[in-house]
Amino acid sequence: MKRLAPYLLILPGGLWLAIFLVVPMVFMASVSTQEGDVVNGFVQTFNFSMYGDALVQYQTQFLRSAGYGLVATIISVALAYPMAYWIAFKGGDRKSTYLLLVLLPFFVSFVLRTVSWKFLLADNGMLLAPLKSAGLLPEDFHVLQTTVAVIGGLVYNYLPFMILPIYVALERVDPRVIEAAQDLYASRREAFTKVVLPLSLPGVFAGVLMTFVPMTADYVNAGILGGPENTMIGNIIQTEYLVNNDYPTAAALSFTLMAAMLIGIFAYAKALGTENVLEAAAR
Q1: I need a surface site. Which of 135, 163, 212, 215 has the fewest CB within 10 A?
Q2: CA of residue 46 relative to chain centroid, distance
């Protein structure tokens, strides 16, 4: 019975993943090679050319999504690291309060939060209207339906996913290690770059994965804050599934996006050095 205990513990999670992840993916893989329509039905023809056609047709949206996701992830790291660092080392007894404030936006629906930014950034909204009235901005100035609005929405909505793993990694750093570095005549900058930063890399690694992947596949921010020139691949997949009812194309696009992100993740892990990250996490 003791030998079976580990497998019994894994069983519930394994069944959950098998039923709600593996089975739908197998079904979607089958749909991606079918031909037909909703009226006459879809027939399995193993039409793998759908992948190439979809990639060529929506190449611009793929590249735009990757670019938006990359820029938003970099901005998230730049904003999240100082915040997580301050909470971990300067938060004192109020760390829980600060973390609650970070998580507070999650008490409101993702869509509602994004729609609220649409009202705030509207041409005659609460932010721009007073500035235009004061002559600080031209009358034709606008933020909505621009790249800045979409990337700003992505950063706002996914920033907590970057803050939390970095905070967890920094929280594990023993302050005595930093004091030891300073005792060895290391400056504050050297103590940070050679001690704190390497030890916090596992959190940065996890944060990038938790933000870049959903940012790249996101369609809500581009749909609400962006315009026709800001369409992301997630918007195309949504339209093919729910509007055009072109399930094979939508499934092929989904698998292509998944494959591209997996390749990017493995390349990122290799460039960062997963062995070094794991060694730092074990310290």
Answers
A1: 135
A2: 32
pTM, two decimal places:
0.88
Residue type, 152: G
User: How far apart are the C-alpha atoms of 270 and 249, rounded to whole Å?
Assistant: 32
Task: Compute the distance between CA of residue 184 and CA of residue 209 in angstroms, rounded to an integer.
Answer: 35
pLDDT in tens, 183-235: 788 888 898 988 899 899 989 999 999 999 999 999 999 999 999 899 999 99
Residues near 276 by beta carbon (within 8 Å), at least 6 away in sequence? 198, 201
Phi and psi torsions of 35, nearest 5°:
-135, 155
* C-beta of residue 91 within 8 angstroms of C-beta of residue 171: no
